[in-house]
Known about the structure:
The protein is α+β, with helices and mostly antiparallel strands and 362 residues long. 40% of the residues lie in helices and 13% in strands.
Amino acid sequence: MYVAVKGGERAIENAHSWLAEERRGDRDVAELSVAQIREQLSLAVNRVMAEGSLYDPDLAALAIKQARGDLIEAIFLIRAYRTTLPRFGVSEPVDTGAMACDRRISATFKDLPGGQVLGPTFDYTHRLLDFKLAADGEVPEAPSQPTEPGDVPHVTDFLNREGLIEEAPHDDTPPPDLTREPLEMPAERALRLQALTRSDEGFTLGLAYSTQRGYARNHAFVGELRIGSVPVEMDIPELGFAVEIGEVVLTECETINQFKGSKTEPPQFTRGYGLVFGQTERKAISMALVDRALRWEELGEDFEGAPAQDAEFVLYHADNIQATGFLEHIKLPHYVDFQSELELVRKLRHEAGADQVQEAAE
């Protein structure tokens, strides 16, 4: 706090009031409601839920409104609120194979059981400004395509039947909880995936892009990208079985990556994996690419010094809340620190000047 400033507490209160006024904006314009943000800025809401580790569209929308659209600030608000919530239990692993898919595409196989579903996507838009939106024009309703849950096999299952792709690892050991325990190195894959799903989208995207440009030689195909809702179940000890407590929307991406084989493994494809709350496909694809790059050691590959291969570099710098806290603290008062360094520089300059005078005299 700016306690060294005279009237500092009052100044902070005034700053909060000014912030609220700026947040409201022109009062002749209708106030933006939380429901409007939730329904019409859903991709922003999804990012806040994913990186905030809390699935609640209403709270994410509220955080976006409070943060004036600053998504990292909104993520900070959500994480802070999350720490106040009690934990009643742990849900069962969700079955993405039974996802009710709103979007399901593959870049590797054209014909899939269950079909490819383009869904709501920007992929085929012209990226031209639509001035009808500025004129508040109504948009035509999309044809109704209800999705029903059912078995929707993963593309990698087809490759697995021929042994062309590595077996998906199966481990029943409960992974550490990154939301309750600090990150420690070396980090197992389960912990790395947790960190990546909470990581900053822009940072992860940049790392993923670097792998495609040769920094890790990580050529990948999107085996499958799917978006949809899955039921969440929780085991109730008193009942002796699990019951459904709700649904969440997830984005899942599996990449298929080249692998030449080793002394113990035949040539086959390997996997990269991404799973994120909401419709967050750019993040899920990026996560899968970085996940694969980080697996170089377990797959017996060479470390090429690529940033995306360095687990400590990736995981210690991917969290935008930690990065923001460290970055923004330097704008707070550091008067004492600076004065000590200022005196040190003055002393050094004085000593250097004295030495030059002495050398000139000699």
